[in-house]
Amino acid sequence: MKEQRSVELLAPARNLETGIEAIRHGADAVYIGASRFGARAAAGNSVEDISALVRFAHTYWARVFVTVNTILEDAELKETEKLIWELYGAGVDAILVQDMAVLRMNLPPIALHASTQMDVRTVEKVRFLAGCGFSRVVLARELSLDQIREIHDACPDVELECFVHGALCVSYSGQCYASQCCFGRSANRGECAQFCRLPFDLVDSEGKVAVRQKHLLSLKDMNRMDYLEQMMDAGVVSMKIEGRLKETGYVKNVVAAYSTRLNEIIRGRDDLRRASTGVCTYSFAPDVRKSFNRQFTGYFIDGKRHDDHNIDTPKAVGMPMGQVLRHGPGWMDVSSVEPFHNGDGICFSGIDGTLRGYRVNRVDGRRIFLHSSQEELRSGRPVVQAGTTVFRNSDTEFDRMLAKESADRKIHVSVSISEIRDGYVLEMTDSDGVSVIVETHTEKQDARTPQDANIRNQLGKLGNTCFKATLLDVRLQGERFIPSSLLADMRRQAVAELENKRIQDVVPLEVGKRTQSVQYPKRELSYLGNVMNHEARAFYLEHGVERVGWAYEKQPVHGAPVMFCRHCVRYALGWCPKHQKAQTQYREPFFLRSSDGREFQLSFDCRNCQMTVLEP
């Protein structure tokens, strides 16, 4: 058999509850924010809650990573160092980092992961980060399989983590300053105001409006379910789901769907294994289309440009259900294979081109009756036409299932009981080979009736624990009467000891080794280096950078690009001179005009297929 590589499904957790459910539904690891300094300011958690999550996760040999991935002010450095020590004391497996000031702190021996906020796209940067002590890097979402494979081949000892599902930032992560520019809320400090989800006019150099009030920077959501095996073969060890602000139901469904798919792949391979243990069963059929989504895109993973944007809405569109067959005031017949339910949310593109959303009031076969506005009912004017696709963005029955206990994750164990000279011994061994022995010293009593069934029944009662008995072995010298209370005590003690032993057997992640002589790939850092404090500045100077500029948040650079995008507005509109050879009546340069009248010039680097958005 080939040596097996461990692969990991990494899930988001907004809080302790979501983290526990992510593990129950099949995650091999979760990432969660602490009370401060995580890139989602609205998703903070206490060290006590994180410690509880660690204990739960480690029972399954799953991991907990904590985001400490904002850029830091000088006054925050001591507090950050203290927090990292507290997280280490809580048993956290690794921290995600953006600010290089962290590497000048007095750190505990904890693994460091380079956050996606560090904008990691090249072999040179991965080598540098590995030399600085990072054992894992989170690659930019925009990289293709070939680019990922190139990095892995050049840096085989560095773990690569890549996003596979969830919301997409239109700008390279860590390189977006639009929120700070417009609203004083820094994406690099966890306070993104989602500038990219706003509607804009597209205006040409002569003031002509080419597109009016469309969400030109709002991307569809990532879905790489069909690329998981190719990503693993390219060198990815951790498949990451986005969504630390998402509700628990979303995490349950998406984690279960990806875990199921990973298991299907691994069953056909002898060189891959899951990073954690335990068998999951679900009370529902996972389907990522039924959770919040803006429709899906693979987003450059195969090196090609796809239809990655949805200019109609930044909101959830959901699952396509079918086409409108007939319609009337407040009702429509839909060619749906799946049934609708009372209370479902639906949306479709109206006759006027705007996205319309409704609740289903009542269902009668294929006919659905809508909660329509009184104005629409009075006017009698149709809001939709036959052939229009209808989407369901809220499935009440599915959501109701997810609101309940919807998964169970069990570690299989074998349980045996046998006699010793002055009592009995219970041995419990799990599927990973971890074993405990519990002895009880008691006077033996012969039984007049068969006891095997009762003994097996008592020892197999593991319902509320993380274990499931798959083998029960009773090896007694004749029929023995053992009180049920004694059997239950032995079983409970064995369960507690096995849980503790499993947690103790979790091997700490390897801490990366620092190379003092490692040099940063560039000699100069502009505001794009996100240097917010003097310790980070000193770090780069020590590693060969000769000029270090301050972060945009500390010293704005007027007229500079505030977004760097692989997504291209020209391509999305069919006007790309490189790929589509298209002509347009509108003259460059183009500008995005926001609702407050500010205009952001667009610049296009066709050689590198990159678009930048300039500060107004």
Q: Describe the largest sheet.
A: 8 strands, parallel, barrel
Could you tell me the mean pLDDT? 94
As a whole number of angstroms, the C-alpha radius of gyration is: 28 Å
What distance separates the N and C termini?
A: 60 Å
Regions with pLDDT < 50 over 5+ consecutive residues?
A: none
Features:
616 residues; alpha/beta; 28% strand
Explain what the structure shows.
With 616 residues, this protein is an alpha/beta fold. Helix content is 23%, strand content 28%. It is built from 14 helices and 30 strands. The longest helix is centred in the C-terminal third of the chain and has 21 residues. The protein is globular, with a radius of gyration of 28 Å. The model has no long low-confidence stretch (mean pLDDT 94).
Précis, in short:
With 616 residues, this protein is α/β, with parallel strands linked by helices. It contains 14 helices and 30 strands.
List the helices and strands and how they pair.
Layout (H helix, E strand, L loop, with lengths): L4 E9 L2 H9 L4 E5 L13 H13 L3 E6 L8 H13 L4 E4 L13 E4 L8 H9 L2 E5 L6 H10 L4 E8 L11 H6 L16 E4 L5 E6 L6 E3 L4 H7 L1 E6 L6 H20 L4 E3 L4 E4 L13 E2 L21 E10 L2 E4 L10 E5 L5 E10 L2 E4 L3 H6 L9 E6 L1 H8 L3 E14 L2 E8 L4 E7 L10 H8 L7 E9 L8 H21 L19 E2 L8 H9 L4 E2 L12 E5 L3 H4 L18 E3 L5 E7 L4 E5 L2
Helix pairs in contact: 1-2, 1-8, 5-7, 11-12
